[in-house]
Amino acid sequence: MQRVCFLMELIPGREDEYRRRHDEIWPELVAELTGAGVRNYTLFRRGTTVIAYAECHPDADTAFGQVGATEVNSRWSQWFRDVLVSTPDDGGRTEAEEVWHLD
């Protein structure tokens, strides 16, 4: 299992829309995420910065690579092009290095 944290930037003024869309997250996307091994996936927001945390089995490249290859992920990413400065699909994700962890 690999823990991963990454940051994304929202288009200013689109914060409420970003939340609304996640309040209505698509069940088929959730199924793809869990089926690919993504667990404990959490999004936080501070201003226009979104901080994401997930635990990936066996690792982030494998899990998110599997999700990224799906049709539902393509539709989801396309839907967010008017909310995010850039989507994770086009390199709009900045990973953070894990420094310390407490179980």
Give an overview of the whole structure.
- It is a single chain.
- With about 100 residues, the protein is α+β, with helices and mostly antiparallel strands.
- It has a single domain, classed as Alpha-Beta Plaits (2-Layer Sandwich), CATH 3.30.70.100.
- It is built from four helices and four strands; from the N terminus they run βααββααβ.
- The chain has helices at about 15-25, 25-35, 60-70, 70-80; strands at about 1-10, 40-45, 50-55, 95.
- Strands 2-3-1-4 form a four-stranded antiparallel beta sheet.
- A hairpin with a 2-residue loop joins strand 2 (about 40-45) and strand 3 (about 50-55).
- Helix 2 packs antiparallel against helix 3.
- It starts with a strand and ends in a 7-residue tail after the last strand.
- It comes from Streptomyces triticagri.
- InterPro entries: Dimeric_a/b-barrel, Rham/fucose_mutarotase.
- One of its GO terms (molecular function) is racemase and epimerase activity, acting on carbohydrates and derivatives.
- This is L-rhamnose mutarotase.
